[in-house]
Amino acid sequence: MRATDLINHSYIALRAGRVRSFLTMLGIAVGIAAVVVLTAIGEGVQRYVLKEFTQFGANLIAVMPGKTETFGVSGAMVSNVRPLSLDDARSLERLSGIEAVVPVVQGNASVEAGRMSRRSMILGVGSRVPDVWSMHPALGRFLPGDDFTAARGYAVLGSKMSEELFPGRSPLGERVRIGSESYRVVGVMERKGQMLGFDMDDTVYIPISRAMAMFDRESLMEIDLLYSAGLSSGPVAERVKRHLKDRHGGEDFTVVTQDQMLEVLGDILGVLTIAIGGLGGISLLVGGVGILTIMTITVNERRGEVGLLRALGARKRQVLTLFLLDAVTLAGMGGLIGLGLGIGLALLVGILLPALPVSISWFYAAMAEIIALLVGLASGVAPALHAARLDPVQALRAE
Amino acid sequence: MIRLEGIDRSFQVGGEWVHALREISLEIPAGDYVAIMGPSGSGKSTLLNVIGLLDRPDRGRYLLGGVDAAGLTEEGRADLRRDKIGFVFQSFHLISRLTAAENVELPLVLAGTEPRVREARVAELLQQLNLSDRARHRPDQLSGGQRQRVAIARALAMRPAVLLADEPTGNLDLTSGREVVEILEGMNAKGITLLVVTHDPAIGGRAHRRIRMVDGLVEEGA
User: Which of A43, A133, B27, B138 could covalently link to A56 via disulfide, CB atoms 3.0 to 4.6 Å apart?
Assistant: First the structure.
């Protein structure tokens, strides 16, 4: 039999039982639509989160004090943890492959300007924040590159902080009191939004040494490094590790590259997407059962036809192919309807709920369609085999 | 030519063994017109099914046009059936969702014949059976006689050597019945071997040769 004739035969059969075919397809369509919508949401969330994480630049390495690994050594022996110091930060700056270093200390203090007062996050940082965190001042400039120990009393405001303290006017050159010290505002940062719950816009940036004094800290909370574009994170992180080990006499710190972070995050979110895709897959399975049911009924109803086909010289395999194709066509067309439905729904969700990031995953959509075809094949096998194995004499008698 | 030698066939119906064919030996030369008659359950249909390669005998030899059917595989029998045999049934066995033309075309489609050839053959057959104006009608839009004519056209589509008709007039009124018989006889006149199973003595009387079956046995009768 010719391929076009096979397809035509299936098409005529499915058209003849329009309502039944449509309802059967609907089962598969709902499954496919569920897979498409759910994975679109999963993929959207994944992209959203990854974007959140990469908005501060891509070539980042963070060094934090303390080692977060467990060894079989008694607690008394690891008490010689040396905190990260400004000297550590300074020395890292000279390491090859490292473009810029930002030491970080964070705390809370009240910020006053005239009669306005606001309690907020204070970040003590170095001058290279615009490079390392890829955030830039919208007004004025960032903190000058003073020596850490002799930093002048300059401050840079987050955009929200600026609006709150100096509504409707430029804060450049104005004085603010932070804690008990007076600072001159030299810049306002561009709007950056929230980052894992921290409002980067409701923040004041001051020189690291002044922040350490203000919060009475001897050590840094974190050192962020920007490495040269084109280098891969692994070797650079290794070099940083070796350097600090030499300085500290042991590995009492943790180096995290952004690649590692993204990788772990991507893995977790990927599993999440697969899991919710699997939920959609269950409804696909239910659709498959629908096809199995309908095909079983159809074969029973068309027994006379099977007998006739055999009398006309159709081989068993031909009968098998015909019925299998019916099932696969049902599933395939159901799948296409589902794809349309799913994509439409995903777009609708994107429009109605702009907060929910939606990104249609063509990979999952294609997978869903392939799975639909496989489901059709699987659920068509038993009925089609039954049809092929019918005794033609008996089948002809059934009318 | 059809040659049966010692064909035996029995099967179980509702726990009872029915010996449908007992040691049947028969020779039907090509181009013959044979009526197979006899009471219900005498084995007429089983004989027709064996000759039509739909059923396999338990014992005996069956030669169709010199080919030993017993030596063929299931698929080989299907191919031989497709190429050599046309079936006409009492209940027509038309596919209701297909038009008259599509029903006639079906054997050619199954055989994988080229669409161009098919189209010409179908048109020719429909014209021959005076159905040209009914080509696009579906079976439920046709009269009984027209339906059986479509079925005959379908049986002829592969240009078979043998036409097997099981009670072809059983569901038809007298006029349509006579018409159908005349068509079948016309085909026989063109050289096709015609075997008709019938209850109707009037049809039996028209055949060149009558075979009477009783209880699985053949009685050759005048």
Answer: A133
* pLDDT at residue A72 in the model: 52
Q: What was the pLDDT predicted at B143?
A: 94
* pLDDT exceeds cutoff 90 at A371: no
In a domain? residue A92: yes
Question: Residue A15 CB: number of other CB atoms within 10 A?
Answer: 10
Question: Is there a single domain that holds both residue A102 and residue A235?
Answer: yes
Order of strands across the sheet with B67-68? Answer: B16-28, B2-13, B59-64, B67-68
For chain B, the domains span 2-221
The Cα diameter of chain A in Å comes to 104
Query: Chain-wide mean pLDDT for chain A?
Result: 87
Report ipTM (2 d.p.).
0.93
Do A381 and A317 reside in the same domain of the chain? yes
Q: What is the DSSP string of chain B?
A: -EEEEEEEEEEEETTEEEEEEEEEEEEE-TT-EEEEE--TTSSHHHHHHHHTTSS--SEEEEEETTEEGGGS-HHHHHHHHHHHEEEE-TT----TTS-HHHHHHHHHHHHT--HHHHHHHHHHHHHHTT-GGGTT--GGGS-HHHHHHHHHHHHHTT--SEEEEESTTTTS-HHHHHHHHHHHHHHHHTT-EEEEE-S-HHHHHHSSEEEEEETTEEEEE-
pLDDT at A54: 75
Please tell me the total count of domains within chain A.
Answer: 2
Same domain, A234 and A366: no
**Tokens read off for B102:** 């599509």
Per-residue pLDDT of B9-58, as tens digits, reads 998 888 889 899 999 999 999 999 999 999 988 999 999 999 999 999 99
**B82-105 pLDDT, tens digit each:** 999 999 999 999 999 999 999 999
Partners of residue A256 on adjacent β-strands: A62
pLDDT at A362 over 90: no
User: Is the pLDDT confidence value at B136 over 90?
Assistant: yes
Test mutation, B18, B56, B109, B138, chain A, max A CBs within 10 A: B109
A315·B91 Cβ contact <8 A = no
Cross-chain Cβ contact A399/B98 below 8 Å:
no
Among left, alpha and beta (phi > 0; psi -120 to 50; other), residue A97 is left
* Closest-CA residue to A221 (of A253, A194, A198): A253
Chain B residues at the A interface, defined by Cβ less than 8 Å, are 49, 52, 54-55, 74-75, 78-79, 81-83, 85, 87, 89, 91, 93, 95-98, 102, 106-107, 109-112, 115, 154, 158
Q: How far apart are CA A266 and CA B159, in angstroms?
A: 67
User: In this structure, is residue A205 part of a structural domain?
Assistant: yes
Please indicate if any CB of chain B lies within 8 Å of the CB of A313: yes
Number of neighbouring beta carbons within 10 Å of residue A173: 9
Q: A246 and A114: one domain?
A: yes
- CATH top class, domain B2-221: alpha beta
- pLDDT score, position A229: 82
Residue of A nearest to B138 (CA): A16
Coil vs helix vs strand at A141: coil
